[in-house]
Amino acid sequence: MKISAVMLFAAFAVWALPGAVMGKESHRRNYDTVRRDLIKSGYQVLKVRRLDNDDYYCSEGFCGIYPETLYCSLAGLHYCNMGFYRPADRKYLVVTTLGEVEFKMTVVKIGEPNDEDMRHILGRPGEP
């Protein structure tokens, strides 16, 4: 199997981004630890504006504990996207977590927001 330079660069970029933000590998780390590290490095949690309180993942105070929750998956072991903002360079960052309950979520991905994330960040989740 031949590995191209582009594939190697892409793999390195995905691997290096979390380390550049927090100084060490972040995948499979506890979300609360990663959250704390991001805040220490100048990021702020986004306080997502809710159009209504019917978001199923906000039940039982989850969004009160994590106001940066952009949205979560519907079934099974929940994936949630959490939003952060760094005012110094106006950079948004999204952390994808995996887990059922608060304080037991692990980080599976850190990266720039996609279009769906930005709609939630801007308070317009229903727009195409």
Model description:
The radius of gyration is 15 Å and the shape is globular. It contains 4 helices and 5 strands; from the N terminus they run H-H-E-H-E-E-E-E-H. The protein has one domain. Strands 1, 2, 3, 4 and 5 form a 5-stranded antiparallel beta sheet that branches. It has 128 residues and is an alpha+beta fold. The protein starts with a helix and ends in a 7-residue tail after the last helix. Helix content is 30%, strand content 22%.
Question: Could you write a compact summary of the structure shown?
Answer:
The chain has 128 residues and is α+β, with helices and mostly antiparallel strands. It is built from 4 helices and 5 strands, in the order ααβαββββα.
DSSP strand content: 15-25%
Label the overall shape.
globular
Number of strands: 5
Low-pLDDT sequence parts? 1-24
The computed structural class is alpha+beta
The tally of helices reads 4
State mean pLDDT (0 to 100 scale). Answer: 74
Give the CA-CA distance, first to last residue: 40 Å
Radius of gyration: 15 Å
The major β-sheet equals: 5 strands, antiparallel
Helix content: 25-40%
- The ordered H/E elements are HHEHEEEEH
How many domain regions?
1
Topology:
Layout: H1 5-22, H2 31-40, E1 44-45, H3 62-65, E2 69-72, E3 79-86, E4 91-98, E5 106-111, H4 115-121
Antiparallel strand pairs: 1-3, 2-3, 3-4, 4-5
Labels describing this entry:
single chain; 128 residues; alpha+beta; 5-stranded antiparallel β-sheet; 30% helix; 22% strand; globular; disordered N terminus
